[in-house]
Automatic annotation (TrEMBL):
Protein name: 2-nitropropane dioxygenase
Signal peptide extent: none
Keywords tagged on the record: Dioxygenase, Flavoprotein, FMN, Oxidoreductase
TM segment ranges: none
Organism of provenance: Mycena maculata
Pfam families assigned: NMO
An example Gene Ontology molecular-function term: nitronate monooxygenase activity
Length: 345
């Protein structure tokens, strides 16, 4: 963050990661690759890339090198201020090829890992810690959770370094049993000791005023997924980005249409409602839906393919670089915090 006169935001998260803006790009499968993650970190936030959905070790290494290129860091070693996110249910599948991608990330010295959506996140956290112990290193561990009970397990049993509280408003997959963020976040904060790990807010956040509001509630930072789908560096197609600019949101039938079943019970998806959803609700034969979906992929027909989006999407109206999003949110957050401080004076 080199702009003259820009104030710093100092939270538990910025101190933990050594960053300037308490803003995290989540590891969005199919959307957050190395370039986007690297650009977000380079701009002063912190970026995760996703290990989800069929990345081979070679492709995954290519994404890691794209992150290094965006960060202009040397091809190996520290510092490498990005993280990698894993869908734990994919790790838990028999003979999961994704497990190997944990060692690949750690060998590449990523600063952090992120686990979500599984039966036993503790098992993967343990794996990372054992690897760290062998190499004499410390990888920062994030977990994404959606209830107070899950937060207590993450803090008391797994002793994680950072918690992402995902409200029901979030884009992509999320717990259909989660509370709205405005209730979830204070409930988690009041259940944990003040000297616990940073708690981040995720779900439906779109701008710097939202970042300021979750900091005011007591979060140490915010996780914005959908907003970064609109960045030029996301893996989304331009047609998907344009659909987001024009959007409103809801529901998931797409896991059936694109055959990405296997998510744990209670995990649903939120994205732009389209003809795939409507046909699914009408009970149209699933083979027809799959075939139309495959056809839609060829020409990026956003009336057929998935465009994941959180409830904040209606407040996003511009396709930008990741850097300008981070900088805009930083300044906008400071302006809002300053305005609130005036109310108290
Ligand atoms: C396209 C997309 C893919 C996502 N993929 C993942 C994922 O692989 N792992 C994960 O933990 N969360 C994933 N999420 C959820 C994010 O971690 C985060 O909770 C969410 O984006 C926050 O809500 P927002 O999109 O309204 O900002 C995804 C979200 C989106 C929009």
């Amino acid at each position: 963050m080199s702009r003259p006169g820009l104030k710093l935001l100092n939270t538990k998260l910025t101190r933990l990661l050594g960053i300037k803006t308490p803003l995290v790009l989540p590891p969005m499968a199919g959307a957050a690759g190395g370039e986007l993650a690297g650009q977000v970190s380079s701009a002063g936030g912190f970026g995760f890339l996703s290990a989800g959905y069929g990345a081979t070790p070679d492709e995954f290494k290519r994404q890691l090198s794209l992150a290094r290129a965006a960060l202009k860091t040397p091809p190996s070693g520290y510092p490498f201020p990005v993280g990698v996110g894993y869908l734990a249910w994919q790790l838990e599948a028999p003979q999961s090829p994704v497990i190997e991608l944990i060692s690949v990330a750690l060998e590449h010295d990523v600063q952090a890992v992120w686990f979500s959506f599984g039966e036993d996140l503790g098992r993967w956290i343990q794996l990372v810690r054992e690897n760290d112990a062998r190499r004499g290193k410390k990888t920062i561990i994030f977990v994404q959770i959606s209830t107070v009970k899950e937060a207590l397990v993450a803090v008391n049993e797994w002793k994680v370094d950072c918690i992402v509280a995902q409200g029901v408003e979030s884009g992509g997959h999320g717990a259909n049993y989660a509370s709205p963020l405005l209730n979830l976040l204070p409930s988690i904060l009041s259940s944990l000791p003040p000297n616990g790990p940073p708690i981040l807010a995720a779900g439906g956040l779109a701008n710097g005023a939202h970042l300021a509001s979750v900091l005011t509630l007591g979060a140490a930072g915010a996780v914005l997924g959908t907003r970064f789908l609109l960045a030029y560096e996301s893996l989304y197609s331009h047609a998907q980005r344009r659909a987001l600019v024009a959007a409103s949101s809801d529901l998931s039938a797409w896991d059936h249409a694109r055959e990405t079943l296997g998510w744990p019970a209670g995990i649903d998806g939120r994205g732009l409602r389209n003809s795939t959803v409507e046909d699914f609700e009408k009970g149209i034969d699933i083979e027809i839906l799959k075939s139309k979906f495959r056809e839609g992929l060829k020409n990026q027909d956003t009336d057929r393919i998935i465009v994941w989006a959180g409830t904040g999407v209606g407040q996003m109206n511009q396709i930008q670089t990741a850097k300008s999003i981070v900088e805009e949110l930083h300044q906008d957050c400071i302006d809002h915090l300053a305005a609130v401080a005036e109310i108290c004076s």
